Every structure is written in structure tokens, then in C-alpha cells.
Amino acid sequence: MKRTLALTLALTTSLSAGAGENFGGIELDSSIPATQVRTLKEDLGYLYSNPIKGFDVDFQSMAGLSKVDGPHMYNWLYNRVKHIIGQSYKLYGRNIVKKTGHSFPSTPLPPSLANNTNQFAGIIIMSNVGASLYVMGKKEKKLTGIKLGGKTVFALSPRVGILQVGEGLFLERLLINNEPNSEANKIKRLGTIFHEARHGDGHSEHIGFIHNACPPGHALSGFDACEASANGAYSLEAVATKTLLENCLTCNNEDKTKLEVTIADAFSRVVLRSHLKTEKQLLEEIATYQRVIDFYIDYLVKNPGSEMSVKELARLKSKVKECEDQLQELRTPVSAQKLDAKPEGTFKEASVEESSLLMNRSLRK
Ligand SMILES: [Zn+2]
Fold first, then answer.
1. pLDDT tens digits for 248-261?
2. Which protein residues have their CB within 5 A of the ion that is ligand 1?
3. What confidence score (pLDDT) does residue 121 get?
4. Using one digit for the tens of pLDDT, what is the confidence trace for 263-311?
């Protein structure tokens, strides 16, 4: 008896573990823990059913929506998210499938990927695995896909829509309040999903709306956690969160304040300049370098032929030049650069009616 029960349990577990689930047309892979699946379903259902009484106009223009309501917002996500995989899904070994002979569009790659300065930034930064697979495939000239639910899903476009959700999305300490499924927490998570979905947009150099290194003077200087465009993933996350916050029915003052901080943090990642130094800082830096330069010039007069000093002098002079360029940039007004969200590769846009039909079917279950 006991043995039969254990066997039945093992069978049921392995069946449910292999199957995954479809919700609103999005495949939730079996690698996502059951509690996270429940949360994701509730979040997506919440978004779809949101009546949206008011919205941020920047959200409408940035997302390119004809109308801002739950079904349109869900449709925007659905067109960029088709599969969600869990943190335990291994993005290597047999799960990765490569195929030669596919002809990719002959458009250039984003410069950071083409020059290897940001190699595999995709994988590290974006949990938008689909966009990463597409650009990696395009770079290697091999169509790349992953095994999902017994089938191979090939990244024929950055819009293939494979997102990986990590524990970070659900961790209580990163949430707005300690009620995991509160409206405020749903809004926070949905903001992140909008962010990730945005990484599926764009063509040629604009593919993936890839992050840039935060410039000197930024709190995250050196980390690939900023963007130099005015309509990237952080901007979209900010305006989507703003729109949802505006429509939050149960957010108290503390929730609102914390969500506003999230929005401000996302906006602070948008840095249109190559540095965040002030004029005063730059002038001081130049003066400091100049003092050391004067010292070396003097030193070289007395000790000609000191190779190390010659090198150091050249390095310091290039530092001054860098500061002068930064000063010049600071004194020149910047116009916000916008990336082109038009997707690349083979991709079919689903209508609001189609995505709504799928969602309604799931919600009725
Ligand atoms: Zn991102």
C-alpha cells in the first residue's frame, strides 16, 4: 500500500514537473516553482483585468499603445513574452540547440556586442533569454534555441519571448510590503516584467535595448546597469510602474512611497551623458593633473631619458584631455536619443483580440 502510494506520488510529481502550464498564452515552464507559478498567474491576470482609469502619457508613447487599459497592456507583454523559465533552468549543455544554415538579417549588431566590449552582456544582464539567444546566434551565424517542454524553441527574433525569472522577483526583502500578493507587490513585479520584455525590442544596433555601463559619477559607475537612450528598459519599467501605481486601489502611503522610490531608481539609470561629473569637479580634476604634469616636466628636465616618467606624463595628459572632453560635453545641451523598437527577424504580432481570448480562457478555468 505504502509502496503504491509512493509510486503514485512519484508519478504525479514527475508528470506535473514535466508539463509546465499555459496561462494567457504564455508557457510557464516546469522549472518555475509552483508558488512562483501561482504568483505569476495572479500578476498577469491582475494586469489584464486592470480597468486603468488614468495613465502616464510617456508610457503610452514609449510602449506605442493605441489605448492604455489592461487588455492592451497585457497584449504588449504577450507580444514579447511567450515562455517563462525558472531560475533552475540550465542555459547550457543539452538544453541549448544550435543549427547552421539559417540566414539572419544582414543588419549590424549593437556595437557593444560586435566589439566584444560587452560580451554576453545579454545573458548576464537580461533575463530576457530569448533576445540573448538571438543576438548570440546572429553573432555566431547559428540559429540558437533552447529545449522547452520537450520541444526546441528557436530564437528567430529577439521577440521570441523567453524570460527567465529568478528568486529576486519574489524575494520578500525586495518587495514593497510583506504581503507577497498585495497589489503593491504585483505592481513591483509587473514593472520588472515590463523591463525584461523591453529587451526583446529593437533591430540592428538597437536590438535588445542593451544596458550600458553606468558612467563616472554614477552610484553604479562601471556596472552595466544604466542606459543612454530615452526609451529603454529602465524608462519603460518606470513609466509602466507609474501607470500601475496611479491605478492602485489598495496601496497605502508607505506602499506608494516605496513604489515611487522604485520609479526614481529606474529613472536614475537613464544617463544620457557619458559622465555625471559637475563642472567644479572637472575643473578641480584638471588642476590636479596639471600640477602633477608640471612636476614631471620639471623632473624630466633634470633627469632626461627616464622612460617611466615619459609614460606617466603621456598618461596624465590623456587624463586631462578626457576631462576637457567631459567638460565640453557638459557645456553642450543633450537631446535624448531614442532607440527604434521595431523588431528584427521572423515574428508575428498578436492582436489584442487574440491575447484577450487566450487570457479569458485561462481566467475562466
Ligand atoms: Zn535590463
1. 999 999 999 999 99
2. 233
3. 40
4. 999 999 999 888 888 999 999 999 999 999 999 999 999 988 888 889 9
Are 204 and 344 contacting, i.e. CB atoms less than 8 angstroms apart?
Answer: yes
C-alpha cell at 121: 552582456
Q: How far apart are CA 144 and CA 132, in angstroms?
A: 10
Classify burial at 123, counting beta carbons within 10 Å of its beta carbon; exposed 0-12, middle 13-18, buried 19 or more: middle
How many whole angstroms from 342 Cα to the centroid of ligand 1?
Answer: 18
Could you tell me the three cell numbers for 249? 486601489
How far does residue 280's CA lie from ligand 1's centre (Å)? Answer: 32
Give the number of residues written for the chain.
Answer: 365
**Cβ pair 143, 226 in contact under 8 A:** no
- Beta-carbon contacts of 297 under 8 Å, excluding residues fewer than 6 positions away, are 313
- The span from the CA of 266 to the CA of 136, in Å, is 27
Q: What is the DSSP letter of 158?
A: G
Distance 125 CA to ligand 1 centre (A): 6
Distance from Cα 229 to the centre of ligand 1, integer Å? 13
Residue 145 CA, chain-centre distance (Å), reads 20
CA–CA gap between residue 122 and residue 329 (Å, rounded): 29
Torsion of CA 117, 120, 121, 124, to 10 degrees: -140
Rg of the chain over CA atoms, in angstroms? 25
CA of 234 to the centre of ligand 1 (A): 7
Phi and psi at 89, nearest 5°, equal: -65, 125
Cα 212 to averaged position of ligand 1 atoms, centre (Å): 10
